[in-house]
Amino acid sequence: MKRVLGSAYFNLLKTILGCGILVYPSLYKNYGIIPTTVLTLISGFFSLSGLFLYVLTNKIINKKSTMSTISRYSIPSLRYVVDVVVILKCFFVTVSYMIFLKEIIPYGFGKLGFEYFVERKELGLLICLLISLPLNLLRKIDGLKFTSVFGIGSVIFILLTSFYRLIRSNSDKKIYYFTDNFSYYKSLGEFVFGFTCHQNIFTIQNEMEGVKIWELNCVMFMAIFTASLIYILFGIINYKIFGELIEGNFLNILDDDKLKIVTVVIYGIMILISIPLQ
User: Fold this and answer.
1) Annotated domain spans of the chain
2) For the whole prediction, is pTM greater than 0.70?
3) How far apart are CA 11 and CA 4, in angstroms?
């Protein structure tokens, strides 16, 4: 039972953690520490509330549900609308991952000695996607637990390297608890994007035979709590290090050293193995 709950935790947490973490230093720079932290916690709360509702609904219907079957039993007239929304959500998240991979391929492949792909980003991306193809063909999400553990380990590694850079930097960059920017609505999508994982909760629940609702609720709470903590720590630490130098993609402002090479490569692999979870 512990193995099943652990697999659910890692798969759900890895579904949450993706490219969204890279924008958090920029969010902290734009809005300040307190507003960004509060908005992160609010986003996590609403995401968790949605997960609770999905799990409870799935249990009530007891049909081994998906988003489609939930809508069929609750609002039949909107079933196909829900299907389209879910498909588009998964599609655009996957596309965002592919765009990110395409951006870092020239740097990553170049530093690893594969200069041929520096000017052939599309070919490099295609090879990466072909490498990940076997993961996309797995029939059960439980089969992705080891890649999820690796992905979470990658995020923790990046967080630890941020701690290391903070210690080494002796940064005196000025940080703000509040800023004059109150256009929070412009970044709501980024906060929401940081907690998108709902499409997998039905699969996770359906594969967990004999697990009580309260146990699954604890798993979901821990996944959202862990993701929120990682986002907040990562954002504040790098805001403290780089201050106003922060731009959209966090990786672009790192010093061009061996640590950056390792960070880019590991994070690229993490994003690649995140695609099957979509």
Assistant:
1) 1-277
2) yes
3) 11
